[in-house]
Amino acid sequence: MDRWMIYGANGYTGRLIAAEAVRRGHKPVLAGRDRDALDALAGPLKLTRRVFGLDDPGAIARQFDDIDLVLNCAGPFSRTCAPVLEACLERKAHYLDITGEIDVFAHCHRAHARAAHEGVVVFPGTGFDVVPTDCVAATLKQLLPDAHHLVLAFEAAGGPSPGTARTSVEGMARGGRARIDGELADVPLAWKAREFVREDGTPRSAMTIPWGDVYTAFVSTGIPNIETYMAVPAKTIARMRWMRHLRPLLALGPVQTFLQSRAGATSGPDDARRARSGCTVWGEVRNARGDEAKLALVAPNGYDLTVSASLGIVEHVRATRPTGGFYTPSMLMGADYVFGLPGVRRLG
What we know:
By secondary structure, the chain is of the alpha/beta class. The chain folds into 2 domains: about 5-125 and about 305-335, Rossmann fold; about 130-300, 2-Layer Sandwich (Dihydrodipicolinate Reductase, domain 2), CATH 3.30.360.10. The chain contains 15 helices and 16 strands. The protein has helices spanning about 10-25, 35-45, 55-65, 75-90, 100-110, 110-120, 130-145, 160-175, 215-220, 235-240, 245-250, 255-265, 270-275, 300-320, 330-335; strands spanning about 5, 30, 50, 70, 95, 120-125, 150-155, 175-180, 185, 195, 205-210, 225-230, 280-285, 290-300, 325, 345. The chain has a 7-stranded parallel beta sheet with strand order 3-2-1-4-5-6-15, sandwiched between helices. Strands 10-11-12-7-13-14-16 form a 7-stranded mixed beta sheet. Helix 3 packs across helix 4, helix 4 (about 75-90) runs parallel beside helix 5 (about 100-110) and helix 8 (about 160-175) packs antiparallel against helix 12. The N and C termini lie far apart (about 45 Å).
């Protein structure tokens, strides 16, 4: 058995990964639910495609009979992770995905013992969510081993893909989250706001968001207090704070259906927009004495980073056959992994 699969290959990010995989000499099996879209993608790439949904657990598992690794690119992962992961565990295929969803990380982490027993690598978050931030967190932990507070932030330009937009709609209904004294805690939308400074000295306002690192960075570093921020205009922070009053409404099924349909209508950034837009990641830690360490990096557009990071992890897992179990990026690939990816530059 020596084949791997991209599930959700016809989605925005899946298409990018499939094209780069072929350029690197790989021949992944492309899979998803949309036959026409898969045919349109697989034909020019000269790849095999498989059409199946995620409603029948037995049928999913049979699709993995000859597969040694699945990279799940079909979001929202709150809907797709559980059935794909279960089939991977049943068929002893490694499970990877590009999620940034806190509850998906938690679900995968709960499978650690079983995955270790089956020899299956379970590695959610192989892309922009959460490779750069997790590597920054792990590096800062090395610089300040007794850190008790971690702040991570990012600024990403270029616009969202349909899957990212739908996930964001789900997240607004859930509210904010942070890690406080070692526990995941619900906090209001835009709970805190502050500024971060770009490489050119430009200050950027930012607000807390429920980013995946409030789960994964705790697993990677053990730091008990974690806040995650996204750089946005000040008016966006004010709007999100106003939307706290609408959370009960946002959680209603019909409202979610409407907002998800609107979010799914986005197309994602084209090649030119991705090429001219990059991202910045900031990290800070401090200990009980008030000692601090800081680190930042600049990188290509988040979708381009997702492609290179995910394929690097796919190649590593298939070549080295790591011990089974749950992994974060820094746990499997090392804290410096992100700094070796194309176009990534460390600032501090």
